[in-house]
Each structure stands twice: as structure tokens, then as C-alpha cells.
Design brief:
Blueprint lengths: L2 H12 L3 E7 L7 H19 L4 E7 L43 H15 L5 E4 H6 L4 H9 L1 H12 L11 E2 L10 E6 L2 E5 L5 E5 L5 E2 L2 H12 L6 E2 H4 L4 H11 L9 E2 L2 E3 L3 E2 L10 H7 L2 H9 L7 E3 L3 H15 L10 H17 L7 H5 L4 H10 L3 H10 L9 H15 L17 H23 L5 H15 L3 H13 L7 H7 L2 H9 L5
Parallel strand pairs: 1-2, 2-3, 9-10, 11-13
Antiparallel strand pairs: 4-8, 5-6, 6-7, 11-12
The protein binds one RNA strand of 77 nucleotides through strand 1, helix 2, strand 9, helix 8 and strand 10.
Length: 527
Amino acid sequence: MHWADHTAQRLSNRGGPQVSCSGITPSGEFHVGHLREILSAEMIHRACLDAGLESEYVFIVDSMDPLRRVYDFLSDSYERYIGHPLAYIPAPGPDGEPGDGSNSYAEHFLNPFLESLEEIGVSPRVIMNHETYESGGFAESIDRSISMKVEIRELIESISGRELDDGWFPYNPRDSKGSMDGVTVTGYEKPFVHWIDSHGVEGRSDIRGGDGKLPWRVDWAARWIIHGVTCEPAGKDHGAAGGSYDTGIPICRLLGGKPPDKMTYEWIQLKGMGAMSSSSGLTIGPMEALELVPPEIMRYIIARSKMGRHIEFDTGSSLFQAAEEYERLVAEPPEEEDGMSKRQRVAVRTQKGAIRLSQSVRGSEPSESIGGVSFSHLSMLAQIKKSDEVVWDSLRKSGHLEGDPSTSLIGRLAKMRSWIGGSHFPEDGRVRILTEARDEVREEIGQEGVVFLEGLCLALEDGGWDYESIGACIRETADKVGTPRRMGYTILYRILLGRDYGPKASTLIGEMSRDDFVSLARSYFQE
RNA sequence: GGGCCUGUAGCUUAGUCAGGUAGAGCGCCGGGCUUUUAACCCGGUGGCCGGGGGUUCGAAUCCCCUCAGGCCCGCCA
């Protein structure tokens, strides 16, 4: 059974309406790794719906989290915002300088990400955490936390092994400048927390507003209660022993809630480059990834892997592999058959689940996502056909397409073109036509090849320069000089691409000019 | 120091929670195909399940130890 379906089954035992949740801090550019966070939860949500449960998917944006430090892409001017909630800091401009404040730091990074989510069929209920604070949503939890300060403190210290300092308080007020760093709480009179800040200024924060927040480990437990979260897959960092999941669960109970089960997922790694990290600069943003990868394939990459496994995200040749695997499964959906072992049945169900959950539109027919044309075929066409119209013509001729291309097919071609045009496209997927003879090829094709090419050049002198005529010439020449047709094609692929296989030979040749082809072929039999 | 994940065929992996004769895809090899969309069809090759010990009638699966890789323990998906 697919992990999402399995989780849905567990959640149905828990009962009640289901709320799957993700939480991400918008401290910098979003990257592909974040898609796993989102999709893991969203797929569980869909599996719940498919299981007939009432379910919702919410995306909580940690907009109340403070800016930790001045990141590389920020100017030094951001020094003064350290400790301020991301929702109350102006967005950086292209130069890294703070903007005019019309757009907050949190929104600045969040908005493009939401667009990416739209594209892969994820439309969460977005909750800006700072708004929940502002509207007083956290007030009760804050009050409870303060009254249970001793118990919470003990829990965190004993489970995480951390020693909290004497001034620790389960609420971090914002100081006279708006920062949450270096503020000492001096007292609590519901609903006000009194404090003195590092500048010596005294003040008070209303727990019913955005004047401060719960510390992370308590915040997490509290939001589960506030939003009724029943399931929240978290990055493995939260899952470490003594990590925030281990403290969140008992704290949530202490505050009177029913926490979700601990569930963690592994990182996505960039092939050969280690884990995604905003600070290392080695990231592929979701926008960038989705410019290359069709939505269903992106979802499939997440859906086919169990949560506990690393995913090597690679925009090179393994993307072809993933796409082909997806297409194969869609073309021939696995079915349970008599005589299958229990394991085989499980495998079939898992694969069917992965395909189902990979659709960007829930419940849509998987074969529509492919649009009748395989990923690798499209990559070839996109490389040898300059204009989209010619690609459609070719597809109509080959019977892949009737009438106008679908929106999804147009999108696929556009993505394919940007993939091919960019630096991520794998070399061995590239169709590069050679322009002159190569010694090793000369050796491979031997005398038989020379005779065949001579005959072919002769045959191509006259006649039309269209795929059909060219194809006919190839077949006729092969028969005439006594070369098996298969060998004739192999010879052509060798001189054209330096490989034994390739896209349809007549199509390839037809894309060249007659002179170019003849001069390439001649270079093998003329000194 | 503490903890987590992973290790199954050349590659990607299923099966591990609920122990019952090792499954799949790709690749590779062979055959077929008198238009080769890197295609398609048929057949085949291939694994002491990282290693060792234990529990059991029976272990890839449970327990202990060990090796290797990745990672977490202020914040980070």
C-alpha cells in the first residue's frame, strides 16, 4: 500500500476531520526540498479524501519567526532587523537592500512559491502564523503555557537535554524596537507580559496580539491544537531524539490537545552536491525545477519514494528515467492477478497509489497527463524541430496527435525546450549531428559502410528532400548494395551521431540540408 | 557524547511495521520485426538480501553486535 494511503488508514482510526499540515519558515528562497514537505502532507490529505474521510490541507507559513542573521543575499542594512518577525520586515530588493515595505520579507519569498504549488496542483489553505497571533488565536495557549511554565520547562530540559537559562519564559515578547532578542520578562498579568529590553526600556505585550510569540517548540504544539492538526510530516531534523517532535507531543498533551503522530521524512539531495541548503547556494528553486519538469513527473518523484528514503534530485538523465517509469506505469497500469503473492499485490497497490497521487488534478485520468507523446520522443522533436508548429505537424503525421495539441502537451514542450536550452540537460540525451568524418567511426562502419554511403549519396542526388523520399532512398540503397536494412540504419546513426541508435534516421537527415548530409557522407569515401 | 535513516541483481528499487520457498523496472544477452519515434514483440542472464551471532520448525523481515554511507541534536524541510 502507498505510504499516503497507509497514513490515511491510520488517521481514519483516529477519527474526526483530518487536517494535514506543513510549516515552512520563509527565511529565504524556497527550493525543491520544500516541495517534499508540501507534497508529503498534501498527498496524505488526498489519500484521506480518497478514503472517504473529511480532510483539509493547510500550509502554515512561519511568518512570525524572527530573522536569525544577515544572509548572504541580504545587505548589511538587515542587521537592524535581526530578531524581528519576518512578517514585519521589508522585503529585500534585487540589490539586497530593504525595500519600501509594501511587501513583507515573508511574502516576498512566499508568493513565487505559492505559484509553483499551484502548478503542481497543490492549493492549500494558507495560514500566515503572524496573523493567528495578531487575531489572538494563540492567546489561550500562551496563557496556559505561562501557567504551566515549570512543567514545560522540565519537559524540554529532560527530553532535549538542553538546559534553559534562568530567564527562560514560554513567551518571547517583542522589545521597544520590535526584536525578540534580549528581552527579559519581568512579570505576567493576564493578558499582559511585562518586560525590560536590552536598551533598558520597559514595556508590556498583549498576548492577544502580535507583540510576541511562543518559543518554537511550544508554538508548534500550540498550533496543532489551534488548527486541529492531525498529521504533519516534518523534516528529519525535527525527528531526532530530543528534537522538536519529541517535545511537541507531550507539550501538546499538557496544553490539552491531541498531537499528531510523529512522522518524519528524509531530505532531497542534489545529485553529487549534497543536501539542499539555502545558505550554501546550492539550490534549485521550485520555479526553476518546474520549468524543466512536468508537474506529474515532479509529483511522481516524491510519490514513488518512501518518506524515509533520500531522494536524489537530478535534472540530468535520471529525469528521463523517472519520466519513462511514470509513462510505462500509466500506459500499462499494474493490476492484481490471481496467483500473485501477497508482496506482489502490495507492490501493485503501491504503484497504483503513486500514479494516482501524481496527478496534478485529483482524480484525473493519468493518461491525459502524457498527452500521447513520450518524454523522450518529445525531447528529440524539440531538439530537431525549431518551431512548435513543426513539432505538432510531425506528431500529427506520426499519428500521436489529432487536431490541436492539449494545454498539457504545449506546457510539456515548453518545459522541454527550456530544459534542453539550459545547462541541466544531460549530454547523452543531446542530439548533436556531426559535421565531419571521425576515424573511429570510419573503422566501425568499415568497407560495407563506405559502399552503402556511396550508394546513398548517389540515390539522394535527385528526388525530393522530404522524410518519405529520404526514407525510401535509405531502404532502396540498402537493398541495392546488399546491406541489411538494420545495418544501414546503424551506419547512418554512427556517422550522424557517433552512436548506434537514434531518432528516426529519415527525420534526422531531413532536418539537415542536402549539401550538409552529402558532404558528411562523402568525407567517408573521398580523401 | 546521544539519536535517526539507508545498505537487497551492473543500476533504481519492492518486500521489513503484522517472520513462511527473494519480486519488479532499467541495463545486458539472444531471437523476431522487408518504414527504427533512443521504438515494439518474445525469450534469457543475473541476488550467500552489507557482515557476524542469537531467537525460531522456519529470518531480508524480530533481538544483539559490527562495518559502510548519509544525516540530526540553537534555527533550517
